[in-house]
Amino acid sequence: MRLSLLFSCCLLIFTACQNDANQTNTQTEQAPAAAKKYDVPKFERDSALAYVAKQVSFGPRVPNSDAHKACKDWLVGKLESFGAEVIEQDFVAEAYTGTKLNSTNIIAQFNPSAPKRILLSAHWDSRHIADSPLSTERQNEPILGADDGGSGVGVLLEVARQLGQNPTDMGVDIVLFDAEDHGESKSEYESQADAQKSTFTWGLGSQYWAQNLHVSGYRPRYGILLDMVGSRNAYFPKEQYSRQFAPQVVDKVWKLAAKMGYGNYFADAEGGGITDDHFFVATYARIPMIDIINLPPNSNNRGFGSHWHTQNDDMDIIDKRTLRAVGQVVLAVLYKEASGTF
Ligand code: AHN
Ligand code: ZN
User: Fold this and answer.
1) Could you identify the atom of ligand 1 that is nearest to the CA of residue 198?
2) Top-level CATH class of 2-33+44-339?
3) CA nearest ligand 1 atom 9, residue
4) What global pTM score does this model have?
5) In this structure, which long-range contacts are made by residues 138-142, counting pairs with CB atoms below 8 Å and at least 24 apart in sequence?
6) CB within 6 Å of ligand 1 — which residues?
7) Are the C-beta atoms of 158 and 103 separated by less than 8 Å?
8) pLDDT tens digits, 203-212
């Protein structure tokens, strides 16, 4: 009895080892056919910085303004020059004030027919007022939004330029949302229902896009949103909704960033939940999406940087080292993903 038990154990272990060996074999046989290996290109921080400065040079990109229209035309032309197939998705959104916002989501597709795709996003509009609790000057005037809007777009333009110069066979969609930052901001609400309602006054472009996808059945593997990724001493903890919607992506991106030496920006810490564009993409379109967003510790500005929604959100706040940290991590994600090694 004892002997036969020992024998069965040995047999079991032997069979298990054999299975292991078989599996390893199958994997090594399949791997070469799976994907080409791509080097990760170098993200040029000066180029990204120039793209932020160019957006800011138009003035505040508030929907219905001339600056907004001029910046849109420049963005579309730039993305096309990098080889992307660009769709302008026009829509009219109603702001919390009742104002009708003539808006456009800008969708830049690389390898439009490739089934394996990654989504990258930022918002290209800037806020119509400087209504932060810390705001002291020109509170009723629009802001330049160098960081809030400009930085994410600047990084993605440089990513697009690199995609044009270093093509892969993977699909990448860069969706620049409009009318993100025209939301209602109050320190206190009368009721829970009012607070809920105000949530949906933000991210009007992503809400529209997620309910009117540019390709029916559009299913990228996941999305990465960049919001306020350009300021000095930026701090990107793992934002709460990102952890809920796409925990594995958060984990892999933050680990990769740390390995690349950017752990000072990509903190291994938990951040609060932000009703940002990724929230609407994940909830309406069911696309897992993360948000890389500056949420400094001990912030006394609703969790954001002290320049947030103030007139200080101009080029002086931008540090090209932050743009590079984020851009280089995004490029590494893309080229590793295309190589099948992410
Ligand atoms: C809220 O403040 C609730 N959402 C704002 C997200 C945002 C504003 N991102 C940039 N500006
Ligand atoms: Zn904002």
Assistant:
1) 3
2) alpha beta
3) 276
4) 0.90
5) 138/311, 141/311, 142/60, 142/62, 142/65
6) 148, 181, 202, 227, 274-276
7) no
8) 999 999 999 9
